[in-house]
Specification:
120 residues, alpha+beta, 4 strands, 41% helix, globular, rRNA-binding
Length: 120
Amino acid sequence: MKQSRTEATHSRHRRIRRKVSGTAARPRLAVFRSHQHIYAQVIDDNQQHTLVAASTVEPELKEQFSHGRSCQAAVSVGQSLAKRALAAGIKEVVFDRGGNLYHGRVQALADAAREAGLEF
């Protein structure tokens, strides 16, 4: 039987997480895309600690966009996450697309983070 879209995303995420892990030297940039918003975190999996985070539910980004489901909102999240990561001394990360396809909002966030200075 064919998987639903949510089940397919979860199975892709589990498969990715078997291979992708963040360390103190190269933390994991994890992206979560809901229907209304997009969230990104830089995580050290060894310490199980979130180092930096950004999302469209934050007040400064919420003022700019009426909703967080646009590529422009994802670009803003990627840029603000990269600024915060660079300020925290994080330059290299491992990208975790969270089971989502590398397309649309996820790709826009990743490209914006790269342009703002993160390396992955």
